[in-house]
Write a structure and sequence with these properties.
The chain is α/β, with parallel strands linked by helices. It is 40% helix and 7% strand. It contains ten helices and four strands; from the N terminus they run αβααβαβαβααααα. The chain has a four-stranded parallel β-sheet, sandwiched between helices. The model has no long low-confidence stretch (mean pLDDT 92).
Length: 244
Amino acid sequence: MELIRTTISGYFQFVTFSHRWGANEPLLRDVEGLSIYGMSKNDGFGKLQAFCLRACEHDYLWAWSDTCCIDKDSSTELQEAIGSMFAWYRRSALTIVHLSDVSSSGSFGGSEWFGRGWTLQELLAPRTVLFYTQNWSLYKNLTCSNHKADAAVLEELERVTGVESRFLTNFSPDMDDARSRLQWASLRCTTRPEDIAYSLFGIFDLHLPVLYGESVEKALGRLLAEIISQSGDISMLDWVGKAS
């Protein structure tokens, strides 16, 4: 029975994709029922194809990308997806990060990926991560199975993000050290201002309504009120972060 369980769970292991959104990203309606390899290789379509190929190279049959695996035309599905995002990255067997602005000889420092709000949970949630550069070569040509297990990569990640390595390798979504978590996010930005609050729901293990159109002040106010309500910790209010 254990062998059957292991075999079945292995078959359904999946890879998640983390990246900086760019021009002409394929949506669900663009790929549903079609083979992505027969599509254009331009812009986001080429990136999606490269991601799926890397997943196959690592012997995974299933791949998930936030661009086309969520029906963004459905407000209900979008709400559920935002609430489940951390869990999806946590349950993935591997997360592939594409740094589209880092050359094969470059470093993390100048990449926009580290300045985006949503990518914070995409860094913290998965246990296994591989970073790929602009031309889809492995970062620093590191061929280990998990870049989070590489001491030099962890040191660089800690320096660039301000997140201690212990959180990078063993992060728990909860209310502990809420002040630090807010500080990590304060240096990041999102396209829609209110997303800076929504992108933190998973990091604090909170399930709150997503209300696009509300002000960023109201979104952050709801987030902070819920954190204080559940944790009783008001110390975070003593610190004012850099505007997002």
